[in-house]
User: What shape does this take?
Amino acid sequence: MSAPMSDTPDTAIPSGLASSSTAFDRTALADFRELAGRIDGNGPRYTSYPTADRFHGEVGDAAYRRALDACRANVPAPLSLYVHIPFCENICYYCGCNKIITKDHTRSARYVDYLAREMAMAAEQLGERRAVMQSHWGGGTPTFLDPVEMRHVMSALHKHFELLPEGEHAIEIDPRRVGDDRMELLGELGFNRISLGVQDFDPEVQQAIHRVQSYEETNGVVRAARRLGFRSISMDLIYGLPHQTTQRFSATIDRVLEMRPDRLSVYSYAHLPHVFKPQRRIDPAALPPAAEKLDILVSTIERLTAAGYVYIGMDHFALPNDDLAIAQREGRLQRNFQGYATHAGYDQLGFGVSAIGAVAGHYAQNARTTDEYYAALDKGQLPIVRGFETSEDDRLRKFIIGELMCNGTLDIPAVEASYSINFAQKFAAELVDLDKLALDHLLRRTRNRIEITPLGRLLVRRIAMVFDHYLREDALRPKPAAPAANDAKVIPLVRYSRVV
Ligand code: SF4
Assistant: This one.
């Protein structure tokens, strides 16, 4: 057991993230199994800090316009854009996204008109045609839009923004709905990255989640993307779905490795039928028990890293020559609403229902329903219904959480210099909690540096939560029924898991 605080010089601490070998530390995986029953690795994903559940209704059109004005003053910096297309033709039972299930394509024709209006309004507030380094269309199913609608949205984007050809321009694709023609259109429209929902290739699992998608459909999209020169192909898998076992999920991994996507996300399914109605159609008795789910995760990490993928963190893997892995090696990986990103430092505008923007220290989220969204735009207002104006303390904690989650290390003197603080004084309580986690080998700490161990990388949300001021405040509030004392659980754990 290592001491939480050591006098080891900082230079002697090896960086667990900079290793040239991609195979994951086997000892760390064995320790992870042992710790999993005692330390809950779930927690916020910190795609924002404060997390979106802290947003409130005092941020609306006027506050967001002030944020856009501040962004306008920062003209040379490029932007990042997110466009939400909420429509899907069929429901996937595990889904937790904000989506509209419909086969009526007239609904999307109206929606894209409003999207264009929202873009025009935001661009007018920004004052000039700003450069965009990163754009992402998500959903829902962006490829629900027909070619005319896609061109309409893209031409609105081009009218109001300059999409830099050297930037990352990504779209989420449902392989069941996309043929070669559509892939050619996506290339022509300027997308250079695609993200495919796969989840699992096992037929029984697919039936149980109501998402039947053949290997041939998925592989057809991958082959078309390679032929057309897309720069990166990303795939999403989910573990913890009904009927999954380690062996069966391993067969899915075999098929995924045949296609060798550049990036892989392997999400944990969180069964929350009281929150996400479609999940009520999933038989809880068919879900793998916790021990099996853990085995699936450990086996997946072993297999992917043995196959040459770099473990980026949380649920993400990338090939060593992918931009994400390169950015992590170079210590410049960041997080934004899409997860890990290479260009996350820019202000981000969100368009469409429920989209979130992060502009000049403000988070701003659009209305969730199309009715509210259309009504606001009809009144000439940006359709913001909630958000958060961050404080200096929020921005400091966001930076610390980002460094720990993305780059696995924190240079304390650099933070003190940038934020004019005495780290040990400001974070005295946090350091006590960190030292408890250090006893479980999740991190090492010296006076000048916090370093996440390979084991800690598997439980990094748990470490990040130590710096979450709002969770710490929650922990101080009286609770109706106190859980049993457990020194390892320093602050209460909240279950957050992306399910698509
Ligand atoms: S998982 Fe994706 S495709 Fe399926 S219902 Fe949800 S948003 Fe639509």
